[in-house]
Inverse folding.
């Protein structure tokens, strides 16, 4: 999709930092790995009713997959669709490994506090999420299993999860075309299984544009996605007082 003609805004999220905002239905948010090796941990909530949030189990079982990529949709726990993945140059996005926490970051990279290191401090994915969620009246109990965009993790012959370092490169991007007005929360802290020796998370660029017609058709090849898209349309028809 050519974003230059329909670009609404863009913003760089430095490595290790965090962001949240409302993404409107009918728009596409592109996440771009700026330097290579980025991890974009993301959660979704319904803007109108934040008790409705991304559901990892329903998303995976309804699409018979372990990872997410182009053609997949992100399902809510109410059977609706937050967004469809309509482009993905990395080709694999982790769904099961969750967030890094302060103890893990300290164990892997040592202590680097804001008081001494300012913007070079070591931030965890969990801490970043909690900071952003607090801005919207949410907290720790609202954190569910998240998506780690750009990160690839597979299970080996022994069932152990293995992180693929170097999977994503500078310039890789993922397009999320939104079907629901969504509160999106993002952390650019390292993936919990990242094998990097030093704390050096890559920045993530966010760019928003209008979604062209028929962009989400690729997600409609899966029966459960069709059902979820129909449920989402009914939600907005009822919400606006229209016929359902």
């Amino acid at each position: 999709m050519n974003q230059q003609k329909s670009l609404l805004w863009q913003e760089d999220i430095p490595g290790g930092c965090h962001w949240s905002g409302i993404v409107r239905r009918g728009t596409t948010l592109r996440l771009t790995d700026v330097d290579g090796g980025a991890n974009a941990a993301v959660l979704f909530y319904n803007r109108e009713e934040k008790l409705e949030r991304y559901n990892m189990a329903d998303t995976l079982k309804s699409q018979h997959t372990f990872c997410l990529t182009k053609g997949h949709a992100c399902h809510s726990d109410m059977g609706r669709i937050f967004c469809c993945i309509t482009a993905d140059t990395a080709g694999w996005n982790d769904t099961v490994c969750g967030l890094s926490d302060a103890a893990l970051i300290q164990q892997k990279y040592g202590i680097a506090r804001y008081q001494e290191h300012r913007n070079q401090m070591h931030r965890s994915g969990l801490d970043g999420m909690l900071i952003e969620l607090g801005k919207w009246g949410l907290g720790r109990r609202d954190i569910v299993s998240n998506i780690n965009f750009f990160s690839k993790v597979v299970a080996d012959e022994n069932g152990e999860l293995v992180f693929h370092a170097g999977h994503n490169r500078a310039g890789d991007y993922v397009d999320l075309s939104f079907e629901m007005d969504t509160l999106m929360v993002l952390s650019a802290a390292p993936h919990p299984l990242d094998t990097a020796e030093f704390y050096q998370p890559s920045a993530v660029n966010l760019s928003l544009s209008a979604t062209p017609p028929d962009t989400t058709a690729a997600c409609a090849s899966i029966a459960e996605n069709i059902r979820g898209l129909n449920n989402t349309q009914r939600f907005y028809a009822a919400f606006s007082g229209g016929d359902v």
Summary: Residues 7-239 form one domain. The CA atoms of residues 84 and 216 lie 6 Å apart. Helices lie at 56-63, 102-109, 114-117, 125-134, 223-239.
